[in-house]
Structures are given as C-alpha cells and as structure tokens.
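ok so for the tutorial part 2 we go from a plain amino acid sequence to predicted structure tokens. step 1 is just haveing the sequence, like this:
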Amino acid sequence: MALENPDAAGMNAGLILDRFRINGDVIIHVRHDMSPGGEIHNYVKPQQGELVITKNQVNAFSGTELLSTLEGNGIEQLIICGMQTHLCVEAAVRAAHDFKFKCILVTDACATKALQYKENIISAKYVHYSTLSTLEGHYATLITTDELLKNFEQYVPR
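step 2 — the prediction. this is what the tokens look like for a chain of 158 residues:
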C-alpha cells in the first residue's frame, strides 16, 4: 500500500503534534492493528502519557474506546490528520461528525494512494482531492498545517 507523499504529510502531522504537546492538549494516537503497516511512524511517535488506541476496523470509533475517551475528557472538537485520506481519515471524520464533534481536517497532514476501479486508475492526487471535497463543509472544516499553526488559538480555543 504505497502512499503518495507520506513523508511530507507525516512531517506536517509531527509539527501539529509538537504544538499540541507544547500547549498540554489531549493527544490521542490511533493505529490500525495490522502488520506490516500498523506501526506509528517516528514523525508522530507517541510520548509517555499519550494514549494509543488500536483499531481493527477502518472507522477508529468502531470497537474502540475512542468515543468514551473523548467524551470523558469533555472534548467537543477534533483536529484530524493521518493516513489514508480516503479510508481511515474519511471514516474518522464522518463518524466524529455523526457523534456531534466539530472536525477540523488538516489536508496536507494526510496522504493516500492511487486506486483502481476496473480498468480506471485514479491518481493519489485525485483520490485525495475527491475525498476532501466530499468532507469539506459537510463534515469538517479543511485547513493546512500552516493555517493551523499560524492561527492556532482560533482553531484550538482555550
């Protein structure tokens, strides 16, 4: 499952994670229980005390303690990024929205891959953009890493 530009997306996710750590905000990592591919990359490696939720489904809420953890911490808004835009990220955003969380999706801190439908190849770029376009406005606010970091207090109010 080779993703397109995962390093750039991972580095952006790491920048976001660093900012949340500085602020002492709640951080939850979600990993897919699969091998290979379920390891958390060094760019976003959990630190002591950060919760890691392991999932077996595409949807991070399905069969995990994610919802109860968020509710238990009084969280109403999520900043979401990760791999793969068209699967796990999209499923998390849609489910979170359905659970009434305000979702902010960081578009350049996500990556995906090319897909094939019958004889048609859809480039990773268009898979990514198509997914983002279905989420924008309906399920999430879409921003870039730079927008989030430059306007952090606006997106992560105290």
